[in-house]
Amino acid sequence: MNNIDRFFSIDPAVFADAYLEYLAKILKEIDRKSIGLFVKTLLEARDRGASVFFIGNGGSATTASHFANDIAVGTNSYEKPFRAISLTDNQAIITAIGNDFGFEEVFVRQLRLIGKPGDVVVAISASGNSKNLIKALDYANNNSIKTVAITAFDGGKMKIIANECIHVPTAQKEYGPAEDAHMILDHLVGNYLLRLVNRVQ
To answer: pLDDT tens digits for 37-79?
Structure first.
């Protein structure tokens, strides 16, 4: 039984209180140094004009889109931009690759086309075991592209193979708190970079 099942209450107000308390506990346990390292990686990519590719499946696909938006457009840095791109957004490409080569190929084949040495790949997954993300990270690691994993549960294989990892320590199958925390990380990082860029300019 995971924590959400354990504290579930038929009373929605009671459940809301328990859920938010649990989410706050999880957020406190995220390693702040890993967030700082991720911000440094994004700033270094910006300085060298590298692209940062965000990838994920399901809810994490929309988190990838949101991250790319908040970092590329949301920072209002156009003279020296953050070149953040979500590889989850082009349905024609995803369905063509998925149909012709299999779903495990949907991200790695995009990286093979547009990824360059010095770029960054950020893979977002609660389980850390999505085959298409692992395949993309393996490709990146073997082609001088820096890899970052944003994970939950026990981190899965992604936590092991990525160059960097921000890990959200939830129990298995707790997708709600995991994805909540991932979106908070997006807004935390985006807000920091927006203010840093405006302060420096």
So the answer is: 999 999 999 999 999 999 999 999 999 999 999 999 999 999 9
Question: Mind listing the domains of the chain with CATH numbers?
Answer: 32-200 (3.40.50.10490)
pLDDT, mean over the chain: 97
HEC sequence for the chain: CCHHHHHCCCCHHHHHHHHHHHHHHHHHCCCHHHHHHHHHHHHHHHHCCCEEEEEECCHHHHHHHHHHHHHHCCCCCCCCCCEEEECCCCHHHHHHHHHHHCHHHCCHHHHHHHCCCCCEEEEECCCCCCHHHHHHHHHHHCCCCEEEEEECCCCHHHHHHCCEEEECCCCCCCHHHHHHHHHHHHHHHHHHHHHHHHHHC
